[in-house]
Amino acid sequence: LVCSLTFIYLFSVFFLLQCAGEENCVDTRTVYIGHKEPPPGAEAFIQQRFPDNRIVSSKYTFWNFIPKNMFEQFRRVANFYFLIIFLVQLIIDTPTSPVTSGLPLFFVIIVTAIKQGYEDWLRHKADKAVNQCLVQVVQHGKVSRKHSRKLTVGDVVYVKEDESFPCDLILLSSSRDDGTCYVTTASLDGESSHKTYHAVQETKAYKTEEEVNCIHATIDCEQPQPDLYKFRGNINIYMGNEPVSRSLASQNLLLRGATLKNTEYIYGVAIYTGMETKMALNYQSKSQKRSAVEKSMNAYLVVYLCILISKAVINTALKYVWQADPNRDEPWYNGKTESERQRHLIRAFTDFLAFMVLFNYIIPVSMYVTVEMQKFLGSYFIMWDDEMFDEELGERAVVNTSDLNEELGQVEYVFTDKTGTLTENNMEFIECCVDGNVYVPDIICNGQVMPGAAGIDMIDTSPGPEAREREELFFRALCLCHTVQVKEEETVDGIKHGIHQGKSSSFYISSSPDEVALVEGMKRLGFTYLRLKDGQMEILNREDEIERFELLEVLTFDSVRRRMSVIVRSSTGELYLFCKGADSSIFPRVVSGKMEQIKARVERNAVEGLRTLCVAYRRLSPEQYEQVCHLLTRAKLEFQDQDKLVAEAYDLIERDLILLGATAVEDRLQEKAADTIESLHKAGMKVWVLTGDKMETAAATCYASKLFRRSTQILELTTKRTEEQSLHDVLFELSRTVLRHYGSMSRDASSGLSSEYIDYGLIIDGATLSAVMRPSQEDSNSGNYKEIFLEICRNCSAVLCCRMAPLQKAQIVKMIKSSKEHPITLAIGDGANDVSMILEAHVGIGIMGKEGRQAVRNSDYAIPKFKHLKKMLLVHGHYYYIRISELVQYFFYKNVCFIFPQFLYQFFCGFSQQPLYDTAYLTLYNISFTSLPILLYSLMEQHINMDILKKEPTLYRDIAKNSLLTWPIFIYWTVLGVYDAIVMFFGAYFLFDNTTFTSNGQMFGNWTFGTLVFTVLVFTVTFKLALDTHYWTWINHFVIWGSLVFFVVFSLLWGGIIWPFLNYQRMYYVFMQMLSSGPAWLSIILLITASLLPDVVKKVFWRALWPTTTERIQVRTTHTQTSPTVSHIYSLEVPVVQVTPV
């Protein structure tokens, strides 16, 4: 029966997997609107199965929590190791109780399980609130309500203004006559601007539930995928004999989580539900990042595991050497039988396991819990820091991943975006150039700006009639070629926008701040964009006349084309194609116009750091327009390769343009961006700027932000240069240039901070980078371009990468990560195009900017402004690394001190596996007696005042390259622990050897000996931490001295009371008897002093002979501290009394 059931189960699983595989192979889905079958003969009705609209963000259920959580916890090597030790103690006769390993292990497991269970309960609670909310659905011509989780694909949903969409919907109709609706996607990508979505022509007229219920249509679309901005599909509407087919794109798709704005209501059909919505697909977990400290910790753990095994092997072998002497074998009353004497191998293995159990405390399981708590609690100091609070945004720093706190102190390369990161992304229209004539939005007379000016002025010469016509055409082009929305009045946070001097005026909003700046600039120059109504775009010209243009087509902007276009029909019937975009994408398509004058002005503005766009147009005949419509319709209806076909259609349409002019918009540098970059340079970090902007604009920003200095020698690796020389020659020439000056100097020496060295800066563009990453197969001399490129970059103080695609940004970060030095990288950006490099870098930081919140969502940390990066790295990162490196080394040190006397004790007890310490001491040493002081140290220690860390960025170099967790330092801590253990054990041993040790003539037993060693141990490791503490508060005093008091009180109670739940009480009166002896007090003091003295002497001599920069500043600060003042650890931390310089 069991075999039969097993076979049936396996067959069922195989069948289900096969079915799932077949379903996943289907790359499209068919949705029947309102669950109506298509008319007979139209197509086969195949009802596909889709998930319901239930959102599940929780990880566990009531039934699988215990097994799933236990499986995840015991996948950790340390937890699994201690589980094995615990099981060994249960199975065989071991010298210590299973409680000594089981209690710490289960404490760790239970605390972690409670924490994770509570977090998952909160997720369940949030899921239930979302899934139980009511939504309105059209059924049988009426609107009814149902729970959100019961929505299915094909349901027609009714959504009112200010409501969120319950699933991903295709817009069928809206309250607006043109079938559009306005939506904000702040919960998805952080963009608060209003985006316009469209219904298809054939369904937008259905305004009531009865009419919507009559829609007979199907939708063919792609299977769900996480890209928020991509969607492909077709809608087939059955209105007669032949179905009408219309293409669907992202502007027809309303995403779950977005909110309906400025539209009374909409009707939409559910197309993706539940965990298949784009929002749910985007909230999946990121790949786990591991810090350099964690890798060091695991390496140390392996070393200590080897030491543990070595100890067990040595003691097992010595035990049998000891017992080889008949006089030392088992006594006569415990003699072994003949069969037992022959089972040498089994006995040896059980003895080996027993010694493993006896010495297993050298592996500190509690260290993992302490590290987790330190990271979790320490992350709040970043979030509570008032200096990292931005009043303008009302935002604080956010920690998404506390596992990487210490990595902030190890950064060697910083990769930063430009727009919105180094700059404000707050655009201001500066000027425009039409046919070589420059226009500014103020009257300029004889070089003087007239106050209150609202007109325009031609700086060069007054235009003639023909120039006036082209000028107005240019202004009209900028008023028409955009996706800006107009609002008469907008209230945000109680402030009314769009009202000027008591009069209602237009207020522009757009997903692109550039477009708003351009439209507002045209308004200041006399042409005001009013609105888009019923497909008509309205403009108010200089004569206060309203001009109307019918909007026929919008060729949307994309990062590949780097331009956008509109096709409009004027009131006189003329057809125009207006196009605006980057100069590199417009100039190759221009056939006439004053190219040279405009190009010169564009280059001049780019050098000044202004963002430039070029504007061109083309008149279309009715026949050409028909061809355009045919091209676009055919491309959009093609389901396969739709994006490619649409791009080809756009390419054919946007040709033979006439150049009108160019615009210049300023994106100001962020506050203190230059100071931040300069501080990062001084700290030894290399800063790279990765941007999609043109080279001239990006280079100007780099000079303004002090990434490049005026003395910097710029090396160019651009397409322009590789056209003149081969890539091979350019790379080798640049390599010879930098190596000639630097030779074999270290990278630190070539940081460019000293004037005696030539400071190099490299500029590379996206096209050349692609050639470097993937050299041409035909080039036989290509060699290893990537290595040569890396060698050049290593010898440059700063690198600018312009014209970068998002994927190229990630490739650069990955290339540096995987180089032979394996440096720690940090990527910082504010837009969706920065997400790839943020995820790729060791540490990813998002900025709460104006390009959405995708970067913030996908980052490890988020900060309001770029200037906050300085404190994040130089202060918080520095402190976190110092603290956790001490924590890790101290844990291994105190466990060596703890367990090495146990190893030495075996030489004096015949290797009988007799424990030196009592069970209670074994259990509580790492849990209670020594855990809190190091946890508090790792949260609050400040070896240098934070103001000094900000003023002296070079201090960051003292902790670079994981310098506090190197093997020499690890060996020093281990040797120190062995020395202290030897002093404690043999010091107590030789004092015990004196029979006059006790004042009353009594002899101390082995438990008194062990208690004496343990007492010296607890006091020594605690005093060692106190000596290492530089920053004292009342909490430090309370915890450090309180832990010692707790140990003494516990020992008194543990040995002073007969506990009824214990079968035997070997520690009864032992501690009191030991303290009643005067020599015991003296020995404790002497042994503690002898243990600590070498470390103190070493520090004194080391600081005197080879002081680090940090130690010099500590000494200087100590000498200059004269007046006590009250300061704070952090803005919201515990106040302490600290002496600061006058």
From TrEMBL:
It is a multi-pass membrane protein. Its main location: membrane. The active site is at D417 (4-aspartylphosphate intermediate). Residues 135-197 form the P-type ATPase A domain. Pfam families: Cation_ATPase, E1-E2_ATPase, PhoLip_ATPase_C, PhoLip_ATPase_N. It comes from the Eukaryota. Residues 856-1108 form the P-type ATPase C-terminal domain. InterPro entries: ATPase_P-typ_cyto_dom_N, ATPase_P-typ_P_site, ATPase_P-typ_TM_dom_sf, ATPase_P-typ_transduc_dom_A_sf, ATPase_P-type_domA, HAD-like_sf, HAD_sf, P-type_ATPase_IV. Its cofactor is Mg(2+). Keywords: ATP-binding, Cell membrane, Endoplasmic reticulum, Endosome, Lipid transport, Magnesium, Membrane, Metal-binding, Nucleotide-binding, Phosphoprotein, Signal, Translocase, Transmembrane, Transmembrane helix, Transport. GO terms for biological process: phospholipid translocation; positive regulation of myotube differentiation. Residues 47-101 form the P-type ATPase N-terminal domain. Component of a P4-ATPase flippase complex which consists of a catalytic alpha subunit ATP11A and an accessory beta subunit TMEM30A. Belongs to the cation transport ATPase (P-type) (TC 3.A.3) family. Type IV subfamily. This is Phospholipid-transporting ATPase. It comes from Poecilia latipinna (sailfin molly).
